[in-house]
Specification:
The chain is mainly alpha-helical and 359 residues long. 76% of the residues lie in helices and 0% in strands. Helix 4 (83-108) packs antiparallel against helix 13, helix 7 packs parallel to helix 9 and helix 12 (286-308) runs antiparallel to helix 13 (313-358). It is globular.
Length: 359
């Protein structure tokens, strides 16, 4: 049970991360069960499928929640800091766990082609047309684009400018609509989701300006107007962009409902500040869980079941969650957390060396 308890004002964000990660994990578990076990189509199964990946998409809901959180949190790591601080902390936050997931993939699944392996190490593979080694990697490139935009705005002293933030939200919404229309009329798979995701992230930033920073410019009326504009434009954007299936079983209503539900979940948590110890734990390991569950939960669990000569769905679910959570906890405590601390030490050392040069 989620309860509202006193605590740090951003603990609710960590809990929300936990929910987002679990939504992605549940989607992948459910689809793997349907594919690998050929589950009979019953009213109950169809009902669950309709919720997890039918009318809604648990994975997309989780990802959009992650994007809202990034917009709410990431720009503030730039506040009053030089760009080298931002990029250093981001590097030590993202890459060590990311590389561990690639290493785990090689050990459990096998060595991919050398080019794919090398390019995936950079986290830039999609920018050069190289496929992701692990499907979950696709969101990381969108995060990197958001970091780049924040860094550019920060460099020109615009990230603290509320008028610029508002204009950015509206520009991204409008670009999403233009790309969706172009995609519909040209039948070319244009990156509509990228601009929608960026619009979500900057909406998260706008919400923080309004709710936490008490911005004079982004007040309640302005923020809710921007949010309403996003939801209103989301309908034609999804209709135009996702009425045709480009090979990913895309439907416009799944996109529309999933984005809407994700935004609603974010604002419910932002409003009521729900905090729960279990969710805090999952929030702390959320990045590692997101990266590692496809390898340990999906791939390794399947291999373990084969060794046990079992076809039990219940056992598969137990092994899936056990391996996913244990691997994520291991990665968080022994890789992610130590490297974040190492990044801070590197920054302190750099600052100390700079002071020595100056004196």
């Amino acid at each position: 049970m989620v309860t509202k308890i006193p605590g740090h004002r951003l603990h609710w964000v960590d809990c929300l991360r936990g929910i987002a990660a679990l939504l992605v994990v549940v989607l992948h578990l459910w689809t793997s069960i349907l594919i690998n076990y050929h589950v009979a189509s019953t009213a109950a199964i169809n009902g669950i499928s309709g919720i997890v990946y039918g009318y809604l998409d648990f994975g997309k809901i989780g990802v959009v929640v992650f994007f809202m959180i990034s917009g709410y949190v990431i720009p503030y790591s730039l506040k009053g800091k030089p760009l080298r601080y931002f990029f250093t902390t981001r590097f030590f936050r993202l890459y060590p766990s990311y590389w561990f997931s690639i290493l785990s993939f090689i050990i459990i699944v096998g060595m991919p082609p050398v080019k794919e392996f090398v390019v995936n190490l950079t986290m830039l593979q999609r920018f050069v047309g190289v496929p992701d080694l692990i499907g979950a990697f696709w969101t990381l490139q969108i995060e990197l684009i958001f970091y780049f935009l924040c860094a550019v705005l920060h460099y020109f002293s615009l990230l603290e400018n509320d008028k610029v933030i508002l204009k950015t939200i509206y520009i991204l919404i409008f670009l999403s609509f233009l790309l969706a229309a172009a995609r519909y009329f040209t039948n070319i798979k244009l990156p509509v989701a990228l601009f929608l995701a960026l619009a979500v992230m900057f909406t998260g930033l706008g919400w923080r300006r309004y709710s936490l920073d008490k911005s004079v410019i982004i007040n309640k009326k302005v923020m809710y107007t921007a949010l309403s504009a996003f939801i209103i434009f989301l309908l034609p954007v999804t209709l135009l962009a996702y009425s045709r299936d480009y090979g990913f079983n895309e439907t416009w209503y799944r996109y529309f409902l999933s984005y809407t539900v994700a935004i609603a979940i974010f604002f419910v948590f932002a409003r009521y500040k729900f905090v729960n110890k279990i969710l805090l734990f999952f929030g702390s390991i959320s990045y590692s869980l997101y990266l590692l569950h496809p390898v340990f939960g999906l791939e390794l669990s399947t291999k373990v079941l084969k060794l046990l000569n079992s076809n039990s769905i219940a056992l598969y679910v137990i092994i899936f969650f056990t391996l996913s959570i244990l691997s994520a906890a291991f990665c968080f405590y022994f890789i992610e957390k130590p490297f974040i601390l190492l990044g801070k030490k590197v920054l302190k050392l750099f600052a100390k060396n700079q002071e020595t040069v100056i004196t």
